[in-house]
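Ticket #4471: structure export looks truncated?
Reporter: QA, pipeline team
Priority: medium

Steps to reproduce: submit the single chain below to the structure queue and open the exported record.
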Amino acid sequence: MENSKYTNLRLQYKIWFTDEAGAGLLGDGKWKILKAIDEAGSLTAACEKLGITYRRTWNDLKSIEKRLGFSLLEKNRGGIDGGSTSLTVEGQRLIRAFDLFHEQMDVIMQDHFKILIKELTLNGKN
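Actual output as written to the record:
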């Protein structure tokens, strides 16, 4: 079968947004971190779940907040049980919008990947 040489191809891609200067601002990685914080209610728990360092993640998120011009996180210092970190309304809005954007792009990318494989297969038969 001619198309068998393409059966091992898989589509992988990342989405990220930049600022006007082209510096990375928010992408799949930070989106996953924000979602993990929202689910876990703690930056520490989110970092542990994702296997990333707390300090760097905190600094990265603070940098993003500064560049966006609004807060993503609300940090509550705790007592015996420790503190918590939650997303602000803007932070929640951002991850919901990114969720929707990703869902829509996933469909588009998969559709166009199928077209690519079809073209490769058809062109391979010429």
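Status: closed, not a bug. The export was complete when the record was re-opened. Leaving a note from the reviewer for reference: Residues 89-124 form the longest helix (36 residues).
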